[in-house]
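Researcher: Going back to the complex we discussed earlier. I've cleaned up the inputs and rechecked each line, so this should be the final set. Can you rerun the prediction on the complete assembly and write out the structure?
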Amino acid sequence: MSGNEPSSVDAAILPAVGWALARDIRVALRSKAELGVQLLFYVIVVSLFPLATSPSREVLATLGPGVLWTTALLASLLSLSRLFAADFHDGTLEQIALSPRPLAALVSGKIAAHWLTTGLPVALLAPLLGAQYALDSAVLGTLMASLLLGTPILSLLGAVGAALTLGTRGGGSLLALLVLPLYAPVLIFGAGAVDAVRAGLSPAPHLSLLGAGLLLALVAAPFAVSAAVRIALD
Amino acid sequence: MTPASATHVLDAQSLAARRGYATLFTDVTFRVEDGQALLVSGPNGSGKTTLLRMTAGLTAPAAGELRWQGDAVRPFDARLRDVVAFNGHLPALKDELTPEENLAAWIALDEAAARDGAIGAALDAVALGRQRQLPVRVLSQGQRRRIGLARLRLVRRPLWILDEPLTALDAQGIEALGALLDAHLASGGLCIAASHQPLPATRERTRTLSLVAA
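Model: Rerun complete. Updated structure for the full complex:
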């Protein structure tokens, strides 16, 4: 990729991010049903566990953080295949890649739109759903904080997987195989932060690690995604 | 984006394409300058689309090189991305948005501020004025191709690369394409198109490059 991006240094990056973000949000809002399905999936799966296990407060409070985090991860995965596939199949991705704007900035906007339409609602809904698991307010607060830090990492890592599986047969299941192991550390530190609070410890180390992971993913993922998109278009 | 007085030269030097183990074509050399159109013809599977994607900077050639203004350019080179307008097989339209919104988005991506009413005028020119508020989902193939023509008109780029521009267009649409091409070439634009039919553009500006099935 060296020598391909002389203009990206001086080109305005933020307008490109904003362009892709605005476009994807607008398209997402026109197909609200799809958004609703993902959130409903999250709500239903989270609500099934108390029905399937035990009504005991002890058991539920132990299960809760793990269930909420795992389901958030699956909800993110569910919407990933849509992130680039639609644009790939209708030719939008071609045009984006050929535009003078830096591709890494454009895909960042798309990833941001993915997080705003999936990760953010999931994080905001979590305290409400967590109430079913007899979690107290301090735990619920940490849960939401960990999801707010963790779900953008899911979108960023997931975008790399989504871009790498573009144009492959059985892309959806391949994507899950590729991305779920990468999600494991996020899950460990996210659910770990909540468990720490329940054990009376500080969630700060876990949250700091999530924050560090987020920064790393923010810097690296857009470039990996744009390289993968260019390969997919070749 | 570039003043019409500037000279543009696109040079292809012995390009070759391979798909898997199959060689599509080798040693394709051409040169296109201001006001010229190159019609790429050849049977199905002879590599017309691949050649066009190479010229647009989407695909790397297996051999040979592409030069813009004398400088060798690789796929996704910024110098090429600044000048190229690529209309491929895929319409690059969002079904959920209206033609107007689709075009506005592409213009915004180009940082070329559209004049008031420019989008409406471009849609009128391809006889889509009445459909401007409908979602693209309900439009026909031909109407989608026409939006692509309107985009060419709005996004002012010197190098047009059109893959099968006549597909799905009716007589009136072909006429609109002809007018668009003539205006583009007359103002010093370049065009490379793949088609099985002759281009509806001024004949003396058009040369033909025939690919043969390997």
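Model: Worth noting: Residues 1-8 of chain A have pLDDT under 50 and may be disordered.
Researcher: Good, that matches what I expected from the previous run.
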